[in-house]
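Report of the visiting student (M.T.), summer placement. My assignment was to run the structure pipeline on a short list of targets and document each run. The first record concerns GNAT family N-acetyltransferase.
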Amino acid sequence: MQSYPNHWEADVVLTDGGTAHLRPITPEDADLLREFHARLSPETIYYRFFAPYPKLSDRDVKRFTTVDYEDRVALVATISDSLVSVVRYDKVAPEEAEVAFVVEDGHQGRGLASVLLEHIGAAARERGVRRFIADVLPENRRMINVFREAGYTAQQTFDEGVIRLTLDLQPTDDSTEVMRAREQRAESRSIARLLFPDSVAVIGASRTAHTIGQTALRNLLGGEFQGPVYPVHPEAKAVVGVRAYPSVLDIPDQVDLAVVAVRADMVVDVVEQCADKGVLGLVVVSSGFGETGPEGRARQDELVRTARAAGMRVVGPNCLGIANSDPRVSLNATLSPDLPPVGSIGFFSQSGALGRAILQRVAERGMGLSTFVSAGNRADVSGNDLMQYWQEDPATEVVLQYLESLGNPRKFTRLARRLAKQKPVVAVRSGGSAQTTPTGHAAGGLALPDYAVTSLFQQAGVVRVDDITQMFDAAQVFAYQPLPKGPRVGVIGNSDSLELLVKDAAVRQGLKPHDPVNLGPQATAEDFDLALETALAADDVHSVVVVFIPALHPISDDVARVLRARSLNSDKPIVATYLGRQGLPEELRHVGDRGETLRGSVPSYPSPEDAVRALAYATRYTQWRNRKPGRHPELPDIDGARARATLVRALRNAKPSADDVAWFGGERRYDEETAISGEDARDLLSCYGITAYPDIPVSSAEGAVVAAGHLGYPVVVKADSPDLRVRAGGAFVRADLRTPEDVRSAFLSLYDRFGAEAGLVVQRMAAPGVPTVIRAGDNQSFGSVVSFGLADVTAELLDDRAFRLAPLTDMDAADLIHAVRAAPLLFGLPAGATSLAEQPDVEALEELLIRVSRLVEAFPEIGYVDLDPVLVNATGAHVLGARMWLREAPEVRPDAGPRRLRGVTF
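After the run finished, the structure tokens were exported:
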């Protein structure tokens, strides 16, 4: 019997926030299938079989559980080792199959049918099925809606009392949007179940002071959690004065959330008890898992498998915990006794060790949090899940993330871009130089340079800062001040030297400061009030920086009152360097009924540079959010079918293996045996409307002359070695050769200098222009990535490149070009030019970038594309060199295919 691909097995989140495990059916499922069918109601059986079918015969069971994973495929969903849903298809034609579902009555309405349709549809496409046929009784409205709302192109007919639905399985924008929306709702709900429990058990609550279990219990009680708290201790009758229970199973009432603080080797047993109890979610503060090595990693995977199989999400292990300041719950399920007050900031931290210090610094600055999650090893719940929740959480207006790795970087950028359109997302990513995943964390090391990660974050609208201090500096503006509408900054103060520092810092940050308004050292509160009124009323002032250092007489309280009052009634942000204070000093705060800091409070920074930098973060974010959305332009001359055929031929010749090719952006080099160039590369590029100049390899001077005659003069003779250009500067090419004598001389000169290893070629000469480099391919973390830079020796040595995720929109392509420091060379007149007609055709370069991005996104078998050089002149963007490296396509690309949770070993 043929085995099934590993990626057909997955954990998924359901619409109510619970989880289920999906996998192909096997003959060993015979008993589970009988039990499942016996639990179905007569109505559900009738809807599935169109007749009463109270019992499955042995023949039925064998037929349903024995499939070939090719023409007959069935997937099952299990929860706590019980089979709760089955979907299957049977081919009836080479590209057509009948599909049928059945979901156990008690689990209907949880989104099982929708997520199973996504997975069975993906499996069918892999097996060449292009259409599903489903026969449904008219009264089975729920199943009809599943098909209709999937977003696929559908047709409907009615015959002999049965509705026949035909679904085109080709993914569409609608089907992708439907899938993403369902994913967002489900993952958001799974986090809400953790953050809004009605009851909490602390398993491992100790009678010994200062232990983890007792600390967690005391913090829950001290935080005035609004529901019952149940200590679990195998012997004690009570812990810190609260009645205790021997196990979670002995608690007489429902338990929504369990805080697990037992030894690592006991955790899985505890999780199994929580599953039997019907607990909805887990916070595992215990250590001794992935951070300890392979044995701990295996224990961590078992923890996650066990929890997800029972429908539970897991925060941790090795984490600080979670908190929700909403007065309806007042949840402090962390190891930190003091939490910041109620606020509008959602905070996610991977580091448990730093979590407590972070919370302390938030409180010291006078800021407030809506929710806080420290994920520790991030074995299950990650920052991506929290972004799904925060997107629709009305209590959260700003999102902060301290990241050490990314479990699914491409999903991170997708979710961050969507969230950032509504709420600022500020991130610190540590370990930028290591390029590895911290010990104990789920996979997510980023095989790209740190500046490339920054480029991709910028594309997604993420405000990436260098450290935690800068994170809080930016958060103060985002959380308590309006967003600036532009880059023009007014500067007001009573210290001429500090005002000049503000102006200089603003210029360095790309802002446009006005000349400072110096009120003098004896300025009064009334002077500040008048200057602020004037600045805030000016149309050409978008934000204001106020510098206040007191004179000998104490007027600071009056100035603070002025700042508060003006800020409260202004739609322009005000930031201050106020007495060298940091945060939101009491004098500058607007305080609510519960003591929380309200919007309109004025952030203060210890130095003018800090204030301007925070304001610059907010300004750049606003510019990103307000820019026109990019579009994917319609491009002529793309022939996907011919590209597939060309690629199959090239793969046959290259014979790559999965290990031959490094990921784009990784440290390993590509195996030269998997490289294609010349006619094969030009053919594949031409399928996507990209024309590459042909070149002819030559090994003698006379051969070079013959090649030049074939191509037509003028020509160039150049070395084709990919690394030679950087080593040799511009000496690797001889250009503007117009006679056979020129060609002979050029060949002999290059051959004498570089030898046969240079791989000399003859190519028709293109008009002078700006040489650039386009590289694209599949990155193990982010998926398809495109990079751009100038083909200049200095640019190469300085690694002046920018990166964006594929496929590129028109805005992405334009941003990618502008992002390199040498970009101004493309927007001026080249040397010797006399008119604008000779300016490089940047629009042609943008279109070329878009075409390359479409190619690598469509064909994961293309591990890496190197177009070097691409000469940009007044007539277009001309590809003068093209090489590709091929590989076996990965089973699953990052963030591709149907919804699934990050995997563990099944």
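The two ends are 20 Å apart (CA to CA). The chain has a mean pLDDT of 90. I thank the supervising group for their guidance throughout the placement.
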